[in-house]
Design goal:
Blueprint lengths: L1 E2 L18 E2 L1 E3 L4 E3 L4 E2 L12 E6 L2 E7 L4 E4 L5 E3 L19 E5 L2 E5 L6 E4 L7 E2 L4 E8 L2 E9 L2 E9 L17 E4 L7 E5 L4 E6 L3 E8 L3 E8 L11 E3 L2 E6 L2 E6 L3 E4 L6 H7 L8 E5 L4 E6 L11 E8 L4 E16 L34 E6 L4 E3 L7 E4 L11 E11 L6 E9 L7 E2 L3 E2 L6 E7 L1 E9 L4 E11 L4
Amino acid sequence: MIKFGQLQSDLPAYQNSGALKVDNVIPLKEGYKSLPGFQALSSQGLTGGAVGLFSSFQASGVTNYAGDSTKLYQMNSSQVFIDKSKSGGYNNSTTTNARDFWKFTQFGTNIIATNHADNIQKFNQGTDSVFSDLVSIKAKYITVINNFVVSGYTTESSTEYNQRVKWSGLNDSSTWTPSQATQSGFQDIVGEHGNIVGIVGGENSGIVFFEKAIYRMSYAGTPLIFRFDKISDNIGAFCDKSIVSFGSMIFFLAQDGFYMLSGGQQLTPIGNGKVDDFFYDDLSSNLDGICSAIDPNNSIVVWSYRGSDAISTSTINNKLIIYNYSVDKWSTGSGLDLQFISTASQEAFTTLESLDVLGNLDNLPKSLDSYFYGEGIVGLAGFNSENKFGKFIATSLSATVDTTEFEGVEGRRSAIINVRPIVDSEEDSATVTVTPITRSSQLDNISVGTAVSTQDSGDCPIRSNSRYHRIRVSVTGNFKTMSGVDIEARPEGKR
């Protein structure tokens, strides 16, 4: 048996312990499982292209908020986003490549949102009917550290402070005038490390990302209030929407590839020698579309982006790159149509009538006893090209996994005469094909053979004669796991 290895598309094909193509699957410790497709849950889309998504968790349940260039929305019980914008709406650019995305945080019962084009916004979930100005300050980034609302990259009185971190009063999101009494203040972290590109909050400390540096922001009390300690002076975040966190782990894209920051101090390159080169080669010239999310149920981080094969004028992401942080393995996703992704939840479906937005009972994405319909289930969510909210809970995407390149018989040509793909499909609903990929020498281009369907026995008779072989297994429909292939080979080249 040849087991499917991890995605290592940055390495040469021959003697690569992994594979060059691992698409539309979720990495496991051994093998892969299916990657669900995107299912729209809302019956109508946002007015414009989605540029922000946030889930608020309260004792009463989950409420989702979203934003586009001119409006902020709250999702109702029918999975429809209702306009909750302040009077006059917002002034963010309608040009996708230039606009700043909405960033959200929660402070008590207040939802706080910022886009840098407008004053920081707040919405009290208990009393407010629409969003309103929290303070006459504009900021690109917003979070909560300790009991402070913290902003980064601010504009104050028409002056832009691209290296400024500014925070509210202690336990008071409405007070922003610097004062020892309230502990509100700011810090300009001046240096040749570029702009602030993100802030990740925390109970006692947070992380401030610059283009070429990373700082830990820790509460120190009066008179200092916050202390800033440099973690890295040469690695920073290349794209703000690539930053995503879960627990003590933060993942982001730097100029030289993907990284994980754990425990607020340990910086680890996670894509080096595996996918970094592949990703940058495949990435379109536009970085603005990159966005990220975490699915804790599957222990994966997902970055959505526009690949090199996307239409040059498109604002829709068609690719994913996926990292399983529990097993340190990668995969990709393709054939998608996404405006924006994030980590979110949906409101609970408490009645059969509330399920109408998903279609009739025969077409529900999950069985009625699935946890999917309960409150607070966190997972991958986003908006499609119609600006409709949804989650990754549809039929599995068509998966493709290659084996490593191997010699069927060491040191000589061989004929592969049978392949048995090891694919577990309990529902008996998956279609499996095998495609031979060969080359006679390392100087040759690969030759991709004809896909052959498996027989009822699970065998797939093929005729593939060459020195070097790869086996591509493709699965359409739902499946549980795919682990590798059993092959039958015989030597060739002698009489």
